[in-house]
Amino acid sequence: MNVVITGAAGFLGSRLANALLAHNSKISVARLVLIDLIQPSPYNDPRVTTLSVNLADPSAVDLIIQPDCHILFHLAAVLSGQAEVDLDLGLRVNFDATRALVETARRRAPNLRFVYTSTIGVFGGNLPSVINDLTAVTPENSYGSQKAMCELLLNDYARRGFVDSRIVRLPTVSIRAGTANRAVTSFASGIIREPLNGKFSICPVGTAQKLYLTSPHTVVQNIIHAATIPANALGSWRVVNLPGICVSVGDMIEALREVAGDQAASLVQFEQDEMIERMVASFPSQCDYSRATSLGFAVDKHFIDIIRYYIRDDLNASN
Amino acid sequence: MNVVITGAAGFLGSRLANALLAHNSKISVARLVLIDLIQPSPYNDPRVTTLSVNLADPSAVDLIIQPDCHILFHLAAVLSGQAEVDLDLGLRVNFDATRALVETARRRAPNLRFVYTSTIGVFGGNLPSVINDLTAVTPENSYGSQKAMCELLLNDYARRGFVDSRIVRLPTVSIRAGTANRAVTSFASGIIREPLNGKFSICPVGTAQKLYLTSPHTVVQNIIHAATIPANALGSWRVVNLPGICVSVGDMIEALREVAGDQAASLVQFEQDEMIERMVASFPSQCDYSRATSLGFAVDKHFIDIIRYYIRDDLNASN
């Protein structure tokens, strides 16, 4: 399979590349093109090419979609915090670039499996306490609005047979290694990662705030799985809410305390940020993901395990 | 108030213009600009200007949105049948032109009340037997997909304070006077209108097919009402399913028979059209419109009354 990843220099994009190149990958990769605004670091693997591409550039699609491309993982996006500050940039990258990609796929690579990472941030407003794949999408943030517009477009292109799209809505990913990003949920990694690294971390929301989380390992598995399931298994609505776990910020800090002690837990400091608080409060925190599990998507178990995996796999690497 | 209507030469657009210019109009109109692809017929009213504008033309927005414009009724669209045949045209007119309008409003007339006529065709797929304003939007037609994308965009612009948008999802309008149009639901008018005019009419779906209908009079009242309700009454989701009545094609023909006799009813001939049948079957036929009525939108009573109003108001005019 010839595979392309956009956003490949990002945290999820680079994990996804590693997983696809691993011996036990569910997809047999002949060629892997890694694309990001800043050229991804070179890989010591003859299958890999890295490219610097600005998605906002109209010629970007020509570099990304080749007729012999089998799977595109389109992860690149302007994240929720930045999209809320700059509507135009968000529309250009999150919507226009995705549309240009799917339109180019239609013309040039109609059998392409187009895996699109949407977000549970498409949900907002007057939500039921537990959402599912048929909960109405009434976003209260621009990032979620733009992603939801792409879902509709990609689903319609799939329905018409123009591209084989598969759309997964990602829970908040925690614990991301590395540094803070411009997602409004960035703190959901920071409040664990920074204390484990001996640093203070600012939490912009209260301890009662509940989050819908997935571990990096599970979400990367699930993004790959989206490319491998038979298209007709998805039915006429190709959008799936990925499994996640519901935890409160207070629960997360208690799990941190249990694993790393009072000293670590005391490094979390609370400093309210109204924009973040409002946006995060509008996201769902519980989801009936039975459709996802029936399609074979994986599920995390306990947040404390996610902390332990982070310590085992990432703590030294990110120090 | 300075008011603009796009799609003003169409059936609803011209009724809307007439209603706004009437003595008893709920909106006091100082100036009314009527815009369509083909210049609307001149009005014998000094308040009215008519313009021929192609929405697909990038300069269209400059003609439509003036800084002193108070209300825009954006009705112009490529209809469902045509949007299904020509995806690109549908995207250009139904999505791109609407986006250009809202973006121009943001820059030039941020207090504009932007009334957008969406459709119950945004719904499709695995629907509950009775939908409501919080039923998930999973369209199975390109027209509905494009309208749903506009809903998200307009709602986000409103949330950010860039435009005062109000979005109403129209039921199938029946009985439209005049001739068939390119909506897949055009037959829902034709099977009554043509027999009342002594003509044969082709019905492309079976008698059991249920439809969600509104009369022209009620829907025009409701489109105007959308411009007059306080913005905050809509809350954070500015999309409302307009009230309609649920009737089967068989019920409609029986009502025709009751009003106009067996001879009229026998003029309806059945000739299956798979595309129309599939799309119409994907639309909802019943809706809990309690949010709409609590916002003051009007409701039709019986389909037989709609036939009688058509005979009283339109039959001679359309002969």
From TrEMBL, chains A, B:
NAD-dependent epimerase/dehydratase domain mapped to chain residues: 3-206
Classification via Gene3D superfamilies: NAD(P)-binding Rossmann-like Domain, UDP-galactose 4-epimerase, domain 1
Keywords: Carbohydrate metabolism, NADP
Highest taxon in the source lineage: Eukaryota
InterPro entries referenced in this protein's UniProt entry, alphabetically: DenD, Epimerase_deHydtase, NAD(P)-bd_dom_sf
Molecular function GO terms recorded: oxidoreductase activity
Stored Pfam families: Epimerase
Identification of the protein by name: D-erythronate dehydrogenase-like
Gene: LOC113393349
